[in-house]
Amino acid sequence: MAGKLKIVFIGNSIINGFPYDRNQEFVSLYRDASGNDVINKGVNGDTVRGVMGRFSQDVLAEKPDIVIILVGTNEFIYKEASPEQCMKDIINLIELAQNQGIEPVLMTPIPLEPTMAKSRWMVCDDVDYEEVQQQIIQLKKQINTYGRENHIRVIDAYYAFSEFVSMVGEQTAYYDGIHPTREGHRFLAEIVGNFL
Predict the structure, then answer these.
(1) Which residues pair with 137 in a beta bridge?
(2) How far, in Å, CA of 174 to CA of 188, rounded?
(3) Which of 39, 83, 125, 130 could covalently link to 139 via disulfide, CB atoms 3.0 to 4.6 Å apart?
């Protein structure tokens, strides 16, 4: 696709850039680097059901060329959905976009650092971050398989961020075991830029 693209990023706090200002998250960094018309529709704590509820207003009404969808961590932390349920809802979003001539691009959720998440994020006994990590891995596999079989482009942020963590270390990559640091956001912006 040549020329300036209009792209909506929709999803959870990773898109929104928690805990940093909006201009420091990877979506804004990508917009600045690419010159594309980029709209951030990230909401802290959001799930795929939340995205579904606002998809018409936040994506379809904007008439973008591309929508980039990132969900699938809060669902498991809050025990709202299994990976299979989450994938079904993602497929619904894909179809909604395609029906309006919008290309859906999926991002896999980034990995957690369970020990850090337990001490720095939600310190409560009923969240098993090891289990959440396994569910993220299951969803990542389903997203990649669906993308391959249905010709949907996938940004495997899980794989890329895992490589980033192995290079720079957990303290540099993670703010709290769930959300990226500023360095992590800069890395994600590069990944998205290279992909698109």
Answers:
(1) none
(2) 12
(3) 83
Q: How far apart are CA 179 and CA 60, in angstroms?
A: 27
Distance CA 165, CA 136 (A): 16
CATH number of the domain where residue 147 is located? 3.40.50.1110
Give bridge partners of residue 20 from the DSSP assignment. Answer: none
| Domain of residue 61, residue span | 6-195
What does pTM read for this prediction?
A: 0.95
**Tally of CB atoms within 10 A around 141:** 14
d(CA 122, CA 92): 30
Report DSSP state, residue 109.
P
Residue 1 covered by a domain: no
- Does 154 reside within a domain? yes
What pLDDT digit, counting tens, does each position of 37-54 carry?
999 999 999 999 999 999
